[in-house]
């Protein structure tokens, strides 16, 4: 029987690749130092929820396979059980996909935040210049006067002569 990669396996690989450590080490880091890497803690919590729904998917798949074996004719009362199990399986699969997507978004957020972590002094200087609205000037020189702000908003209504 070929082994298939579950969504839990995909999430585990995604987290391990993003943080560059095995899952066991990441679990320890997420519990001991949660404030140092909140994205890791978020990914680990989401993975824990995914583990639950992944288990639910497996249970419902096994139940559905047992109720619909080749050559097995279900009794009338089992038809509702088959339908119910199929619906629960679909819901569990949808939840698993949502959790996997959430982990993917956390990993993307970590990757997007990585350049900011490398140069905080440069980022702070750029933010300060942007807030001031001026270009830096030489020490001792007076800053140039800023131009007056333009009026923003609708123009005054014009009235046309009535006939």
Outline the biggest β-sheet: none
Strand content: under 5%
Please, what is the oligomeric state?
single chain
* Strand element count: 0
Rounded mean pLDDT score: 79
Helicity range of the residues? 55-70%
Helical segment count: 5
- Stretches where pLDDT falls below 50 for ≥5 residues? none
Q: Helix and strand string, N-terminal first?
A: HHHHH
What distance lies between the first and last C-alpha atoms, to the nearest angstrom? 89 Å
What structural category arises from helix and sheet content?
mainly alpha
Rg from C-alpha positions? 29 Å
Question: Which SSEs are present, and which pair or pack?
Answer:
Blueprint: H1 7-19, H2 23-32, H3 38-67, H4 76-118, H5 120-132
Helix pairs in contact: 1-3, 1-4, 2-3, 3-4
Please, could you describe this protein's structure?
The chain has 163 residues and is an all-alpha fold. It has helices at 7-19, 23-32, 38-67, 76-118, 120-132. The longest helix has 43 residues, at 76-118. The mean pLDDT is 79.
Q: What are the defining features of this structure?
A:
elongated, 163 residues, mainly alpha
In a few lines, what is going on in this structure?
With 163 residues, this protein is mostly helical. Helices cover 67% and strands 0% of the residues. The protein has helices at residues 7-19, 23-32, 38-67, 76-118, 120-132.
